[in-house]
Amino acid sequence: MMMTLLALGARAQTIILDDTFNRGPTTVGSGANSTTGIGNGWIDTTGNIWSIPTVGQLNTSAGGLGNPCYWAGSGGQMQTEECAVTFVCSSSANRDVAAVVKLQDAKDYYCAFVDSGTLYVQKVINGTFMNLVAVPAFSLSVGQTATIVLYANTSGGSTTLIAYSFVGTLGAPSGTIYTATTVNSAPNLQNAGYCGITSFLNSAINYVTEAKIWNGLYIPGNVLTSGAVALTAANTTTITATVGAPMGGTSPYTYAWYYSTAANVTPNVLIGGQTTATLTWNPPTSGHYYVRCVVTDSAGHNVSSNTVLVATNGGSLVIGFIGDSITQYGDSLGNAPPYYECQIVQYVGNFYKVSLVNEGIPGSKTSDWVPTNSNNYFNNALAAFQGAGVSIVSIMLGTNDAYGGMPQATYQSNLQAIVNGLVANGFKVILNSPPYILNTNYASANALLESAYPKAIAAVVASNPKMVYQGALYDYRYFAQHVDEMKDQFHPNDAGIQSYAKMWAQAFIQSFLGPGKSPLEGGPVR
Protein backbone atom coordinates (compact mmCIF):
# COMPACT_ATOMS: atom_id res chain seq x y z
CA MET A 1 0.00 0.00 0.00
CA MET A 2 1.11 3.55 -0.64
CA MET A 3 0.25 5.98 2.12
CA THR A 4 0.78 9.67 1.50
CA LEU A 5 -2.25 11.33 3.04
CA LEU A 6 -2.99 14.78 4.28
CA ALA A 7 -3.98 14.95 7.90
CA LEU A 8 -7.67 14.09 7.87
CA GLY A 9 -9.77 14.54 10.93
CA ALA A 10 -13.17 13.05 11.57
CA ARG A 11 -15.86 14.50 9.34
CA ALA A 12 -19.57 14.04 9.27
CA GLN A 13 -20.60 12.02 6.24
CA THR A 14 -23.83 12.71 4.45
CA ILE A 15 -25.02 10.19 1.89
CA ILE A 16 -25.93 12.11 -1.26
CA LEU A 17 -26.96 9.08 -3.31
CA ASP A 18 -27.28 5.33 -2.99
CA ASP A 19 -28.59 4.12 -6.35
CA THR A 20 -29.19 0.43 -7.12
CA PHE A 21 -30.93 1.29 -10.42
CA ASN A 22 -34.08 -0.37 -9.19
CA ARG A 23 -36.29 0.78 -12.05
CA GLY A 24 -37.39 -0.49 -15.41
CA PRO A 25 -35.21 -0.67 -18.53
CA THR A 26 -34.51 2.69 -20.12
CA THR A 27 -32.44 4.16 -22.89
CA VAL A 28 -30.55 7.40 -22.88
CA GLY A 29 -33.18 9.29 -24.80
CA SER A 30 -32.23 12.44 -26.65
CA GLY A 31 -28.47 12.38 -26.25
CA ALA A 32 -25.91 14.43 -24.37
CA ASN A 33 -27.02 15.86 -21.05
CA SER A 34 -30.28 13.95 -21.20
CA THR A 35 -31.59 12.59 -17.91
CA THR A 36 -34.61 10.89 -19.42
CA GLY A 37 -32.88 7.55 -19.81
CA ILE A 38 -30.75 7.25 -16.73
CA GLY A 39 -33.08 9.29 -14.59
CA ASN A 40 -33.04 10.98 -11.20
CA GLY A 41 -30.14 13.31 -11.89
CA TRP A 42 -27.67 11.13 -13.79
CA ILE A 43 -26.14 13.02 -16.72
CA ASP A 44 -24.82 11.26 -19.80
CA THR A 45 -22.01 13.56 -20.95
CA THR A 46 -21.75 12.09 -24.43
CA GLY A 47 -25.17 10.70 -25.26
CA ASN A 48 -26.42 7.22 -26.18
CA ILE A 49 -23.86 5.58 -23.90
CA TRP A 50 -25.37 4.86 -20.50
CA SER A 51 -28.64 3.00 -20.02
CA ILE A 52 -30.50 0.63 -17.71
CA PRO A 53 -30.92 -2.62 -19.68
CA THR A 54 -32.68 -4.41 -16.86
CA VAL A 55 -33.73 -3.66 -13.29
CA GLY A 56 -30.70 -3.26 -11.03
CA GLN A 57 -28.10 -2.70 -13.75
CA LEU A 58 -26.61 0.39 -15.33
CA ASN A 59 -24.39 -0.27 -18.31
CA THR A 60 -22.24 1.47 -20.87
CA SER A 61 -22.30 0.23 -24.43
CA ALA A 62 -19.50 2.47 -25.79
CA GLY A 63 -17.61 3.84 -22.86
CA GLY A 64 -14.04 4.95 -22.40
CA LEU A 65 -12.40 7.69 -20.37
CA GLY A 66 -13.99 10.38 -22.51
CA ASN A 67 -17.55 9.22 -21.85
CA PRO A 68 -18.37 9.47 -18.13
CA CYS A 69 -21.79 9.92 -16.65
CA TYR A 70 -22.23 11.81 -13.41
CA TRP A 71 -24.69 12.66 -10.67
CA ALA A 72 -26.11 16.15 -10.97
CA GLY A 73 -29.15 15.60 -8.79
CA SER A 74 -29.51 16.39 -5.11
CA GLY A 75 -26.11 17.28 -3.65
CA GLY A 76 -24.63 18.52 -6.91
CA GLN A 77 -21.03 19.58 -6.95
CA MET A 78 -18.90 19.08 -3.84
CA GLN A 79 -15.44 20.12 -2.71
CA THR A 80 -15.07 17.03 -0.49
CA GLU A 81 -16.65 13.99 -2.04
CA GLU A 82 -16.48 10.21 -2.34
CA CYS A 83 -17.89 7.92 -5.00
CA ALA A 84 -18.26 4.14 -4.78
CA VAL A 85 -19.14 1.96 -7.77
CA THR A 86 -19.98 -1.75 -7.59
CA PHE A 87 -19.99 -3.61 -10.90
CA VAL A 88 -19.94 -7.07 -12.45
CA CYS A 89 -17.06 -7.99 -14.78
CA SER A 90 -18.86 -8.77 -18.02
CA SER A 91 -16.00 -10.31 -20.03
CA SER A 92 -12.25 -10.82 -19.89
CA ALA A 93 -11.77 -7.97 -22.36
CA ASN A 94 -14.27 -5.56 -20.79
CA ARG A 95 -13.58 -5.60 -17.08
CA ASP A 96 -12.85 -2.06 -15.95
CA VAL A 97 -15.26 0.41 -14.40
CA ALA A 98 -13.97 3.57 -12.74
CA ALA A 99 -15.29 5.77 -9.95
CA VAL A 100 -15.04 9.46 -10.90
CA VAL A 101 -14.64 12.49 -8.60
CA LYS A 102 -14.01 16.22 -9.04
CA LEU A 103 -15.54 16.02 -12.52
CA GLN A 104 -15.54 19.45 -14.17
CA ASP A 105 -16.65 18.29 -17.62
CA ALA A 106 -16.41 15.19 -19.83
CA LYS A 107 -12.65 15.64 -20.25
CA ASP A 108 -11.44 16.83 -16.83
CA TYR A 109 -11.70 14.68 -13.69
CA TYR A 110 -10.01 12.19 -11.36
CA CYS A 111 -10.83 8.48 -11.53
CA ALA A 112 -9.80 5.13 -10.01
CA PHE A 113 -10.06 1.63 -11.49
CA VAL A 114 -8.51 -1.84 -11.39
CA ASP A 115 -6.87 -3.26 -14.50
CA SER A 116 -4.77 -6.42 -14.87
CA GLY A 117 -4.14 -6.76 -11.16
CA THR A 118 -3.29 -3.11 -10.49
CA LEU A 119 -5.25 -0.32 -8.78
CA TYR A 120 -4.76 2.98 -10.59
CA VAL A 121 -5.63 6.56 -9.66
CA GLN A 122 -5.56 8.82 -12.71
CA LYS A 123 -6.30 12.37 -13.65
CA VAL A 124 -7.87 13.20 -16.99
CA ILE A 125 -6.96 16.66 -18.26
CA ASN A 126 -8.45 17.87 -21.53
CA GLY A 127 -9.17 14.26 -22.41
CA THR A 128 -5.59 13.06 -21.76
CA PHE A 129 -5.17 10.61 -18.88
CA MET A 130 -2.15 10.35 -16.61
CA ASN A 131 -1.43 7.81 -13.88
CA LEU A 132 -0.93 9.44 -10.48
CA VAL A 133 -0.32 6.26 -8.51
CA ALA A 134 -0.51 2.52 -9.14
CA VAL A 135 -0.42 -0.27 -6.53
CA PRO A 136 -0.81 -4.06 -6.82
CA ALA A 137 -4.39 -5.23 -6.33
CA PHE A 138 -6.45 -8.16 -7.67
CA SER A 139 -7.34 -9.51 -11.11
CA LEU A 140 -11.01 -9.64 -12.05
CA SER A 141 -12.58 -12.75 -13.51
CA VAL A 142 -15.71 -12.90 -15.66
CA GLY A 143 -18.86 -12.74 -13.56
CA GLN A 144 -17.04 -11.42 -10.50
CA THR A 145 -18.41 -8.49 -8.51
CA ALA A 146 -15.97 -5.75 -7.51
CA THR A 147 -16.13 -2.33 -5.89
CA ILE A 148 -14.03 0.78 -6.56
CA VAL A 149 -14.14 3.72 -4.14
CA LEU A 150 -12.49 7.10 -4.71
CA TYR A 151 -12.37 9.96 -2.20
CA ALA A 152 -11.28 13.54 -2.94
CA ASN A 153 -10.70 16.40 -0.54
CA THR A 154 -9.36 19.77 -1.66
CA SER A 155 -7.59 22.09 0.76
CA GLY A 156 -5.09 24.85 0.11
CA GLY A 157 -5.07 24.25 -3.63
CA SER A 158 -4.23 20.53 -3.45
CA THR A 159 -6.51 17.52 -3.60
CA THR A 160 -5.94 14.40 -1.51
CA LEU A 161 -7.12 11.29 -3.35
CA ILE A 162 -7.72 7.94 -1.64
CA ALA A 163 -8.81 4.91 -3.65
CA TYR A 164 -10.03 1.57 -2.30
CA SER A 165 -10.66 -1.57 -4.33
CA PHE A 166 -11.89 -5.00 -3.32
CA VAL A 167 -13.88 -7.99 -4.47
CA GLY A 168 -17.52 -7.92 -3.37
CA THR A 169 -20.01 -5.17 -2.65
CA LEU A 170 -19.58 -2.03 -0.61
CA GLY A 171 -21.50 -3.56 2.27
CA ALA A 172 -19.74 -6.92 2.07
CA PRO A 173 -16.05 -6.68 1.03
CA SER A 174 -14.41 -10.04 0.38
CA GLY A 175 -10.72 -10.52 1.12
CA THR A 176 -8.11 -7.78 1.01
CA ILE A 177 -9.07 -4.13 0.67
CA TYR A 178 -6.39 -2.48 -1.48
CA THR A 179 -5.56 1.19 -0.95
CA ALA A 180 -3.79 3.80 -3.06
CA THR A 181 -3.31 7.44 -2.05
CA THR A 182 -1.80 10.49 -3.65
CA VAL A 183 -2.00 14.29 -3.64
CA ASN A 184 -2.43 16.31 -6.84
CA SER A 185 -2.67 20.01 -7.68
CA ALA A 186 -3.93 20.09 -11.27
CA PRO A 187 -5.28 23.66 -11.33
CA ASN A 188 -8.54 22.97 -13.14
CA LEU A 189 -9.45 20.12 -10.76
CA GLN A 190 -9.32 22.05 -7.50
CA ASN A 191 -12.86 23.40 -7.75
CA ALA A 192 -15.99 21.69 -6.51
CA GLY A 193 -16.88 18.85 -8.87
CA TYR A 194 -19.30 16.04 -9.56
CA CYS A 195 -19.05 12.33 -8.80
CA GLY A 196 -19.61 9.83 -11.56
CA ILE A 197 -18.85 6.61 -13.38
CA THR A 198 -16.84 5.76 -16.45
CA SER A 199 -15.44 2.65 -18.09
CA PHE A 200 -11.78 2.38 -18.89
CA LEU A 201 -12.10 0.78 -22.33
CA ASN A 202 -13.93 1.99 -25.39
CA SER A 203 -16.66 -0.35 -26.63
CA ALA A 204 -17.01 -1.80 -23.14
CA ILE A 205 -20.08 -3.42 -21.62
CA ASN A 206 -19.94 -3.37 -17.86
CA TYR A 207 -22.85 -3.74 -15.48
CA VAL A 208 -22.95 -1.34 -12.53
CA THR A 209 -25.17 -2.64 -9.74
CA GLU A 210 -24.76 0.16 -7.19
CA ALA A 211 -23.41 3.70 -7.09
CA LYS A 212 -23.05 5.52 -3.78
CA ILE A 213 -21.90 9.09 -3.17
CA TRP A 214 -20.96 10.90 0.07
CA ASN A 215 -19.79 14.42 0.89
CA GLY A 216 -17.21 13.09 3.37
CA LEU A 217 -14.79 10.23 3.93
CA TYR A 218 -16.07 6.71 4.45
CA ILE A 219 -13.43 3.97 4.86
CA PRO A 220 -14.59 0.53 3.70
CA GLY A 221 -13.91 -2.30 6.13
CA ASN A 222 -11.32 -1.57 8.75
CA VAL A 223 -8.31 -0.35 6.74
CA LEU A 224 -5.44 1.30 8.63
CA THR A 225 -4.28 4.48 6.90
CA SER A 226 -1.68 7.00 7.98
CA GLY A 227 -1.91 10.74 8.14
CA ALA A 228 0.73 12.82 6.40
CA VAL A 229 3.98 14.03 7.86
CA ALA A 230 4.37 17.81 7.71
CA LEU A 231 7.40 19.87 8.69
CA THR A 232 6.47 22.17 11.58
CA ALA A 233 9.74 24.00 12.22
CA ALA A 234 13.49 23.80 11.77
CA ASN A 235 16.22 25.86 13.36
CA THR A 236 19.94 25.54 13.95
CA THR A 237 19.60 22.40 16.06
CA THR A 238 16.07 21.00 16.03
CA ILE A 239 13.56 19.58 13.54
CA THR A 240 9.91 19.43 14.53
CA ALA A 241 7.39 17.51 12.44
CA THR A 242 3.95 16.01 12.96
CA VAL A 243 2.03 13.14 11.41
CA GLY A 244 -1.70 13.45 10.86
CA ALA A 245 -4.09 11.25 12.80
CA PRO A 246 -4.31 7.66 11.50
CA MET A 247 -7.65 6.19 10.51
CA GLY A 248 -9.03 2.67 10.60
CA GLY A 249 -7.28 -0.26 12.17
CA THR A 250 -7.66 -0.90 15.90
CA SER A 251 -6.68 1.79 18.40
CA PRO A 252 -4.59 2.63 20.31
CA TYR A 253 -1.79 3.45 17.89
CA THR A 254 1.98 3.65 18.35
CA TYR A 255 4.46 5.68 16.33
CA ALA A 256 8.05 5.21 15.19
CA TRP A 257 10.12 7.77 13.26
CA TYR A 258 12.87 7.01 10.75
CA TYR A 259 15.35 9.07 8.74
CA SER A 260 17.86 8.75 5.93
CA THR A 261 20.36 11.21 4.47
CA ALA A 262 20.22 9.92 0.88
CA ALA A 263 17.52 10.81 -1.62
CA ASN A 264 17.33 7.28 -2.99
CA VAL A 265 17.07 5.49 0.38
CA THR A 266 13.74 5.02 2.17
CA PRO A 267 14.19 6.41 5.68
CA ASN A 268 15.33 3.35 7.63
CA VAL A 269 17.34 4.63 10.62
CA LEU A 270 15.20 4.60 13.75
CA ILE A 271 15.13 7.88 15.67
CA GLY A 272 15.28 6.75 19.28
CA GLY A 273 12.87 8.04 21.88
CA GLN A 274 10.36 9.44 19.35
CA THR A 275 7.16 7.46 19.94
CA THR A 276 4.39 10.03 19.56
CA ALA A 277 2.72 11.75 16.61
CA THR A 278 5.09 14.70 17.04
CA LEU A 279 8.77 14.44 16.22
CA THR A 280 11.17 16.73 18.08
CA TRP A 281 14.65 15.76 16.99
CA ASN A 282 18.18 17.09 17.10
CA PRO A 283 19.91 15.57 14.05
CA PRO A 284 23.53 14.50 14.46
CA THR A 285 24.79 17.21 12.08
CA SER A 286 23.43 20.14 10.12
CA GLY A 287 22.16 19.16 6.71
CA HIS A 288 19.07 17.80 5.03
CA TYR A 289 17.27 14.63 6.04
CA TYR A 290 14.44 12.47 4.73
CA VAL A 291 11.92 11.62 7.45
CA ARG A 292 8.87 9.34 7.66
CA CYS A 293 6.64 7.92 10.38
CA VAL A 294 5.42 4.32 10.73
CA VAL A 295 2.10 3.91 12.54
CA THR A 296 1.16 0.58 14.16
CA ASP A 297 -2.25 -0.34 15.54
CA SER A 298 -2.94 -2.62 18.52
CA ALA A 299 -3.55 -5.57 16.19
CA GLY A 300 -0.02 -5.29 14.84
CA HIS A 301 -0.88 -3.76 11.46
CA ASN A 302 1.47 -0.99 10.39
CA VAL A 303 1.58 1.58 7.63
CA SER A 304 4.13 4.16 6.53
CA SER A 305 3.47 7.83 6.04
CA ASN A 306 4.87 9.85 3.17
CA THR A 307 8.53 10.88 3.25
CA VAL A 308 9.39 14.57 3.61
CA LEU A 309 12.66 16.38 3.06
CA VAL A 310 13.61 18.59 6.03
CA ALA A 311 16.71 20.51 7.07
CA THR A 312 18.13 22.30 10.03
CA ASN A 313 19.07 25.87 9.35
CA GLY A 314 22.65 25.65 8.27
CA GLY A 315 21.62 22.76 6.03
CA SER A 316 21.47 23.43 2.34
CA LEU A 317 19.88 21.97 -0.75
CA VAL A 318 21.37 22.06 -4.23
CA ILE A 319 19.10 21.55 -7.26
CA GLY A 320 20.45 20.79 -10.71
CA PHE A 321 18.73 21.94 -13.89
CA ILE A 322 18.77 20.49 -17.41
CA GLY A 323 16.94 22.25 -20.20
CA ASP A 324 17.11 24.50 -23.23
CA SER A 325 17.15 28.29 -23.52
CA ILE A 326 13.97 28.64 -21.45
CA THR A 327 15.85 27.15 -18.49
CA GLN A 328 19.10 28.98 -19.23
CA TYR A 329 18.07 32.54 -20.20
CA GLY A 330 17.50 35.15 -17.49
CA ASP A 331 15.26 38.17 -17.07
CA SER A 332 16.30 41.83 -17.20
CA LEU A 333 18.20 41.26 -13.93
CA GLY A 334 19.99 38.23 -15.35
CA ASN A 335 18.07 35.68 -13.26
CA ALA A 336 16.62 32.56 -14.93
CA PRO A 337 13.56 30.60 -13.66
CA PRO A 338 15.70 28.20 -11.55
CA TYR A 339 16.98 31.15 -9.48
CA TYR A 340 13.50 32.24 -8.43
CA GLU A 341 12.35 28.64 -7.93
CA CYS A 342 15.16 28.09 -5.44
CA GLN A 343 14.18 31.24 -3.53
CA ILE A 344 10.63 29.89 -3.13
CA VAL A 345 11.79 26.42 -2.12
CA GLN A 346 14.21 27.90 0.40
CA TYR A 347 11.45 29.92 2.06
CA VAL A 348 8.92 27.06 2.19
CA GLY A 349 11.42 24.38 3.19
CA ASN A 350 13.10 26.25 6.04
CA PHE A 351 16.49 25.74 4.42
CA TYR A 352 19.43 27.95 5.24
CA LYS A 353 20.32 27.99 1.59
CA VAL A 354 18.92 26.53 -1.63
CA SER A 355 21.30 26.90 -4.54
CA LEU A 356 21.29 25.80 -8.13
CA VAL A 357 23.50 24.41 -10.87
CA ASN A 358 21.94 25.54 -14.14
CA GLU A 359 23.14 23.41 -17.06
CA GLY A 360 20.51 24.63 -19.53
CA ILE A 361 21.84 24.84 -23.10
CA PRO A 362 20.02 27.02 -25.68
CA GLY A 363 18.67 25.13 -28.67
CA SER A 364 19.14 21.70 -27.11
CA LYS A 365 16.83 18.73 -27.62
CA THR A 366 16.43 15.50 -25.70
CA SER A 367 18.69 13.77 -28.23
CA ASP A 368 21.49 16.17 -27.28
CA TRP A 369 21.25 15.07 -23.64
CA VAL A 370 21.30 11.28 -23.92
CA PRO A 371 24.37 9.99 -22.07
CA THR A 372 25.87 8.40 -25.21
CA ASN A 373 25.91 11.63 -27.23
CA SER A 374 29.48 12.65 -28.09
CA ASN A 375 28.74 16.32 -27.33
CA ASN A 376 29.04 15.40 -23.62
CA TYR A 377 26.16 17.63 -22.50
CA PHE A 378 25.05 14.90 -20.09
CA ASN A 379 28.52 14.01 -18.85
CA ASN A 380 29.46 17.64 -18.27
CA ALA A 381 26.23 18.27 -16.34
CA LEU A 382 26.74 15.09 -14.32
CA ALA A 383 30.22 16.22 -13.27
CA ALA A 384 28.91 19.67 -12.32
CA PHE A 385 26.06 18.18 -10.30
CA GLN A 386 28.31 15.76 -8.45
CA GLY A 387 30.86 18.46 -7.73
CA ALA A 388 28.25 20.82 -6.25
CA GLY A 389 26.40 18.25 -4.14
CA VAL A 390 23.19 18.24 -6.17
CA SER A 391 20.60 15.76 -4.90
CA ILE A 392 17.61 16.51 -7.18
CA VAL A 393 17.69 17.31 -10.91
CA SER A 394 14.90 19.27 -12.62
CA ILE A 395 14.39 18.76 -16.36
CA MET A 396 12.31 20.66 -18.91
CA LEU A 397 13.01 19.64 -22.50
CA GLY A 398 10.74 19.33 -25.50
CA THR A 399 10.23 22.71 -27.17
CA ASN A 400 13.01 22.19 -29.69
CA ASP A 401 12.05 18.52 -30.08
CA ALA A 402 8.51 19.51 -31.07
CA TYR A 403 9.77 22.29 -33.33
CA GLY A 404 11.74 19.62 -35.20
CA GLY A 405 8.76 17.24 -35.34
CA MET A 406 10.24 14.57 -33.06
CA PRO A 407 7.65 11.77 -32.56
CA GLN A 408 6.39 10.96 -29.08
CA ALA A 409 8.10 7.55 -29.01
CA THR A 410 11.53 9.04 -29.79
CA TYR A 411 11.06 11.87 -27.30
CA GLN A 412 10.08 9.36 -24.62
CA SER A 413 13.01 7.06 -25.39
CA ASN A 414 15.50 9.94 -25.19
CA LEU A 415 13.99 11.28 -21.97
CA GLN A 416 14.05 7.80 -20.43
CA ALA A 417 17.75 7.45 -21.27
CA ILE A 418 18.56 10.81 -19.64
CA VAL A 419 16.58 9.92 -16.51
CA ASN A 420 18.09 6.44 -16.28
CA GLY A 421 21.57 7.97 -16.40
CA LEU A 422 20.77 10.38 -13.58
CA VAL A 423 19.05 7.78 -11.39
CA ALA A 424 21.96 5.40 -11.85
CA ASN A 425 24.14 8.09 -10.29
CA GLY A 426 21.86 8.51 -7.26
CA PHE A 427 19.84 11.58 -8.28
CA LYS A 428 16.12 12.03 -7.90
CA VAL A 429 14.54 13.63 -10.98
CA ILE A 430 11.53 15.88 -11.52
CA LEU A 431 10.17 16.35 -15.05
CA ASN A 432 8.38 19.57 -16.04
CA SER A 433 6.21 19.68 -19.15
CA PRO A 434 7.40 21.87 -22.04
CA PRO A 435 5.40 25.00 -22.94
CA TYR A 436 3.37 26.59 -25.70
CA ILE A 437 4.86 28.02 -28.92
CA LEU A 438 3.38 31.37 -29.88
CA ASN A 439 2.92 31.03 -33.62
CA THR A 440 0.01 29.61 -35.59
CA ASN A 441 2.49 28.13 -38.08
CA TYR A 442 3.61 25.70 -35.38
CA ALA A 443 0.30 23.86 -35.01
CA SER A 444 1.90 20.43 -35.41
CA ALA A 445 4.59 21.27 -32.84
CA ASN A 446 1.98 22.51 -30.37
CA ALA A 447 0.00 19.30 -30.85
CA LEU A 448 3.04 17.34 -29.69
CA LEU A 449 3.62 19.68 -26.76
CA GLU A 450 0.01 19.65 -25.62
CA SER A 451 -0.93 15.99 -25.89
CA ALA A 452 1.87 13.64 -26.93
CA TYR A 453 4.80 14.81 -24.83
CA PRO A 454 2.92 14.92 -21.48
CA LYS A 455 1.99 11.26 -22.06
CA ALA A 456 5.65 10.46 -22.66
CA ILE A 457 6.66 12.27 -19.45
CA ALA A 458 3.99 10.40 -17.47
CA ALA A 459 5.34 7.08 -18.78
CA VAL A 460 8.89 7.98 -17.73
CA VAL A 461 7.65 9.00 -14.27
CA ALA A 462 5.72 5.73 -13.95
CA SER A 463 8.83 3.73 -14.87
CA ASN A 464 10.47 4.58 -11.52
CA PRO A 465 8.05 6.38 -9.18
CA LYS A 466 10.43 6.22 -6.20
CA MET A 467 13.08 8.25 -8.02
CA VAL A 468 11.27 10.13 -10.80
CA TYR A 469 8.56 12.70 -10.10
CA GLN A 470 6.00 14.58 -12.13
CA GLY A 471 6.82 18.27 -12.28
CA ALA A 472 4.68 21.19 -13.46
CA LEU A 473 1.95 19.93 -15.77
CA TYR A 474 0.35 23.11 -16.93
CA ASP A 475 3.22 25.09 -18.47
CA TYR A 476 1.64 24.63 -21.89
CA ARG A 477 -1.87 25.64 -20.94
CA TYR A 478 -0.68 28.56 -18.82
CA PHE A 479 1.35 30.23 -21.55
CA ALA A 480 -1.26 29.47 -24.19
CA GLN A 481 -3.61 31.56 -22.03
CA HIS A 482 -1.02 34.19 -21.01
CA VAL A 483 0.77 35.13 -24.22
CA ASP A 484 1.38 38.56 -22.68
CA GLU A 485 4.07 36.83 -20.56
CA MET A 486 6.07 35.80 -23.65
CA LYS A 487 8.70 38.07 -25.19
CA ASP A 488 8.83 36.10 -28.45
CA GLN A 489 7.38 32.93 -29.90
CA PHE A 490 9.40 30.67 -27.57
CA HIS A 491 10.71 32.56 -24.53
CA PRO A 492 9.11 34.16 -21.48
CA ASN A 493 9.49 37.81 -20.54
CA ASP A 494 10.25 38.92 -16.97
CA ALA A 495 6.70 38.13 -15.79
CA GLY A 496 6.80 34.78 -17.57
CA ILE A 497 10.06 33.81 -15.87
CA GLN A 498 8.41 34.44 -12.50
CA SER A 499 5.46 32.27 -13.55
CA TYR A 500 7.76 29.44 -14.59
CA ALA A 501 9.49 29.65 -11.21
CA LYS A 502 6.17 29.46 -9.35
CA MET A 503 4.92 26.50 -11.37
CA TRP A 504 8.17 24.59 -11.05
CA ALA A 505 8.48 25.38 -7.34
CA GLN A 506 4.95 24.30 -6.61
CA ALA A 507 5.54 20.91 -8.23
CA PHE A 508 8.90 20.57 -6.45
CA ILE A 509 7.39 21.37 -3.06
CA GLN A 510 4.54 18.94 -3.64
CA SER A 511 6.94 16.15 -4.58
CA PHE A 512 9.73 16.63 -2.05
CA LEU A 513 8.63 18.80 0.88
CA GLY A 514 5.34 17.15 1.73
CA PRO A 515 1.73 17.47 0.53
CA GLY A 516 -0.59 20.37 1.04
CA LYS A 517 1.97 23.19 0.94
CA SER A 518 1.47 26.30 -1.15
CA PRO A 519 4.56 28.29 -2.13
CA LEU A 520 2.96 31.72 -2.25
CA GLU A 521 0.28 33.56 -0.35
CA GLY A 522 -3.07 33.24 -2.05
CA GLY A 523 -2.75 29.62 -3.09
CA PRO A 524 -1.14 27.78 -5.95
CA VAL A 525 -0.41 29.23 -9.36
CA ARG A 526 -3.36 29.03 -11.70
Description:
Helix 6 runs parallel beside helix 7. The chain contains 9 helices and 28 strands. The radius of gyration is 24 Å and the shape is globular. The protein is α+β, with helices and mostly antiparallel strands and 526 residues long. Mean pLDDT is 81; it is low at 1-12, 28-37 and 515-526.
List the helices and strands and how they pair.
Blueprint: E1 15-19, E2 42-44, E3 50-54, E4 57-60, E5 69-71, E6 80-88, E7 97-105, E8 108-115, E9 118-125, E10 128-136, E11 145-155, E12 158-168, E13 173-184, E14 194-199, E15 206-214, E16 229-234, E17 239-243, E18 254-260, E19 269-270, E20 278-281, E21 288-296, E22 302-304, E23 308-311, E24 316-323, H1 325-328, H2 337-349, E25 353-358, H3 366-369, H4 377-388, E26 392-396, H5 399-403, H6 408-424, E27 428-431, H7 443-463, E28 468-470, H8 475-481, H9 494-512
Parallel strand pairs: 24-25, 24-26, 26-27, 27-28
Antiparallel strand pairs: 1-15, 2-5, 3-4, 4-15, 5-14, 6-11, 6-15, 7-8, 7-14, 8-9, 9-10, 11-12, 12-13, 16-17, 17-20, 18-19, 18-21, 21-22, 21-23
| Percent of sequence in beta strands | 25-35%
Uncertain runs are 1-12, 28-37, 515-526
What would the average pLDDT be, to the nearest integer?
81
Shape: globular
Number of strands: 28
Kindly provide the radius of gyration, computed on alpha-carbon positions and rounded to a whole number of angstroms.
Answer: 24 Å
Total helical elements: 9
User: What is the helix content?
Assistant: 10-25%
Largest sheet: 8 strands, antiparallel
Structural class: alpha+beta
Distance between the termini: 31 Å
Oligomer: single chain
